[in-house]
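I hope you will forgive my troubling you with a question about protein structure. I should value your view on which stretches of the chain appear to form regular backbone elements. Here, with my thanks, is the record as I have it:
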Amino acid sequence: MAPAVPLALLALVALLAPGLGVAFPGCDYPAHLWCSSREIAVACQAESRCANLSRPAAAPVELSLYYESLCPACREFLVRELFTTWLLLPAEALSITLVPYGNAKESNVSGKWHFQCQHGPEECLGNMIETCLMHEAKNFSTYFPVIFCLESGSSVTKNLEACLQVYAPQLDGGRVAACVQGETGVALMHRNAQLTEALDPPHQFVPWIVIDGKHTDELQAQAEASLLGLICRLYQGEKPEACGGSVAPKRGSCRR
């Protein structure tokens, strides 16, 4: 977390740029950085005051990843393609939604939802940890590095505290644990099940990639081969500096 902003600095910024002197919840940046990027300006509710930030020329490419926490192919795509592409591209070019559920099955037993996962109970726990993490963190740029840490590490289910310490020390691991162990986590997983079951066409394997609301074999193959190149081709705004393309071997999948 960024250090607290001195009162004198806030006062100075308020004089130089009226309306920028008050911090908002979710704004962990010093006042002098509020106009340094669109993402920070939005977090600090200062976008309308930042004359240097022009409006984006086009909507971001919308990518939804339907996956399961212990699927090797899902972990490889998330770590090697999705996370690196997200790091390279600005928020105005790419918007990501993560839905951890995959090939799981749910059943209603005496009014309570129960889940069975392709890779066993450990995967169900991993799915719920990541879902509850997203629920508690809210901000994508806060929780995605933690999920990357979990998926790239030795254990998705045992490294939460360590990953939080490195990537999001401001988050309370106890709140995530309470979500996992309580009714909130179950309700969130039921929502993931509904989102996954509503896919059209229905998913046949994971990772299942949806681009701008569409899934095709061609889009899936292009995303797995070079996600950065695909997003760069699809984005209709001014091309970001990183849009030089990349090539990676085709990924596998976890079929039902």
The mean pLDDT is 87. The radius of gyration is 20 Å. The chain has one domain: 61-240. The beta strands are 61-67, 94-100, 105-109, 112-116, 205-206, 208-211, 254-255.
